[in-house]
TrEMBL record:
Keywords, alphabetical: Plasmid
Protein name according to UniProt: DUF7718 domain-containing protein
InterPro entries, per the entry: DUF7718 (IPR056135)
Taxonomic lineage: Bacteria, Thermotogati, Deinococcota, Deinococci, Thermales
Segments forming domain DUF7718: 10-101
């Protein structure tokens, strides 16, 4: 079963959380920071932590993909830490995305 939720963390930013649960156990997850890009007139993904490919990693739009990260082994705890980290550092991630976009990356 896939559980999805959206967490609004500001007027122009949100988190999308996806948890895939099988037989009561968390199998995979993703936490994605999205920002309303006024130039594009839509939300764009800025940074994401997920378990695709079997390992926890971070992707940053226009900057880097599959960056290794140090998160708790427990998938539930790791997802919570990722959600907290993206919330607390949202402005930093958004500014890095905007700078990369301005450079044409």
């Amino acid at each position: 079963m896939v559980r999805r939720r959206e967490v609004v963390i500001g007027p122009d930013r949100r988190l999308r959380v996806t948890l895939e649960v099988e037989r009561g156990k968390l199998r995979s997850w993703a936490v994605q920071l999205e920002w309303w890009d006024p130039e594009e007139g839509r939300f764009v993904w800025v940074a994401r932590y997920d378990t695709s490919g079997g390992r926890v990693h971070r992707d940053r739009n226009r900057i880097a993909s599959h960056e290794p990260v140090d998160l708790p082994e427990d998938p539930g705890e790791a997802a919570k830490v990722a959600e907290r980290e993206l919330s607390l550092k949202a402005e930093e991630y958004i500014e890095a995305y905007r700078a990369a976009k301005a450079q044409g990356r």
